[in-house]
């Protein structure tokens, strides 16, 4: 128990340092948006007879994704035998607020499943050890779309069929495919949350505008192909062709903003993930609000300008004079 308390205290200290790195301004914008967006989605799912069961699965997926990307797993494995028990307690504590919301709606089974599933994320292997480099299967994606190559190998290949199965199960209601699209978008958020080494940008040998155009073409192309079955389920359901077109353009637009945000704040991973989360939070929270079109235009224009400006600086610093 003393070791567990020390570990949890250390995690709180690291969280505080991360929040200070994000900054008061970004935190003041990001925090309320994420809480409101996440709370809104949680309340809608908890009040839905079938949607409540998506909450434990989503909670587990989020914890599993965060766990596999932790940088301290190798250190803990060598210095603290049985460390997975600490992680299981940590993940259980993180899942408790979600379970409490489900209990408020008398979703006893979903709340219990949330508590039962969360600790099991601690047993998953770290991302870099998930598969030996000598035994990696040939990827269906182009090597330059490295976000997709890595993301599909570290979870996407099993998460996508599960989301599709859930969407097919609930295809009579537009909520099923839409929830699946939101969850798939959150997974893509993890794909584009880690900046690649600067040498990969230099080897591309393109101007910032050409580089961004190529990244957007690859990212939106693969995103559109992966989301096509969900769009088809929407089109044949109550949403119809018109509703599906609107949802599809909105969803692909968010993917484009996520890609732009990555290079607007390259190579600071904390700032990249903060802005990406802010963009997604605002997009999911404010549709229908009178200020939404203005915020959207500002976000699009600002990220395009900032990403080109940032890439110009980075590529200029790495250019070797002839």
Automatic annotation (TrEMBL):
<feature type="transmembrane region" description="Helical">
    <location>
        <begin position="83"/>
        <end position="102"/>
    </location>
</feature>
<keyword id="KW-0812">Transmembrane</keyword>
<feature type="transmembrane region" description="Helical">
    <location>
        <begin position="40"/>
        <end position="63"/>
    </location>
</feature>
<feature type="transmembrane region" description="Helical">
    <location>
        <begin position="145"/>
        <end position="169"/>
    </location>
</feature>
<feature type="transmembrane region" description="Helical">
    <location>
        <begin position="277"/>
        <end position="305"/>
    </location>
</feature>
<feature type="transmembrane region" description="Helical">
    <location>
        <begin position="215"/>
        <end position="234"/>
    </location>
</feature>
<protein>
    <submittedName>
        <fullName>Uncharacterized protein</fullName>
    </submittedName>
</protein>
<keyword id="KW-1133">Transmembrane helix</keyword>
<keyword id="KW-0472">Membrane</keyword>
<feature type="transmembrane region" description="Helical">
    <location>
        <begin position="246"/>
        <end position="265"/>
    </location>
</feature>
<feature type="transmembrane region" description="Helical">
    <location>
        <begin position="175"/>
        <end position="194"/>
    </location>
</feature>
């Amino acid at each position: 128990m003393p070791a567990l308390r020390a570990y949890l205290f250390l995690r709180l200290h690291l969280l505080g340092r991360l929040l200070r790195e994000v900054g008061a301004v970004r935190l003041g914008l990001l925090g309320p948006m994420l809480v409101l967006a996440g709370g809104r989605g949680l309340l809608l799912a908890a009040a839905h007879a079938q949607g409540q069961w998506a909450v434990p699965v989503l909670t587990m997926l989020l914890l599993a994704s965060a766990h596999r990307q932790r940088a301290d797993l190798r250190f803990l494995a060598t210095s603290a035998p049985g460390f997975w028990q600490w992680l299981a307690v940590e993940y259980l504590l993180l899942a408790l607020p979600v379970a409490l919301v489900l209990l408020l709606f008398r979703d006893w089974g979903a709340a219990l499943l949330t508590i039962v599933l969360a600790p099991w994320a601690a047993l998953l292997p770290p991302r870099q050890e998930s598969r030996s480099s000598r035994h990696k299967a040939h990827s269906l994606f182009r090597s330059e779309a490295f976000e997709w190559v890595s993301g599909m190998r570290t979870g996407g290949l099993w998460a996508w069929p599960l989301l599709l199965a859930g969407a097919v199960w609930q295809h009579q209601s537009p909520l099923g495919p839409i929830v699946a699209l939101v969850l798939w978008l959150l997974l893509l958020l993890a794909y584009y949350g880690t900046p690649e080494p600067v040498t990969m940008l230099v080897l591309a040998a393109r101007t910032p505008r050409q580089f961004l155009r190529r990244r957007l073409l690859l990212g939106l192309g693969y995103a559109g192909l992966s989301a096509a079955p969900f769009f088809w389920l929407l089109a044949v359901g109550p949403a119809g062709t018109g509703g599906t077109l609107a949802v599809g353009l909105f969803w692909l637009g968010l993917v484009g903003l996520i890609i732009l945000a990555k290079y607007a704040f390259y190579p600071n991973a904390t700032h990249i993930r903060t802005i990406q989360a802010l963009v997604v939070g605002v997009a999911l929270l404010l549709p229908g609000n009178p200020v939404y079109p203005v915020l959207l235009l500002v976000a699009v224009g600002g990220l395009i300008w900032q990403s080109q400006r940032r890439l110009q600086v980075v590529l200029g610093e790495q250019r070797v004079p002839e």
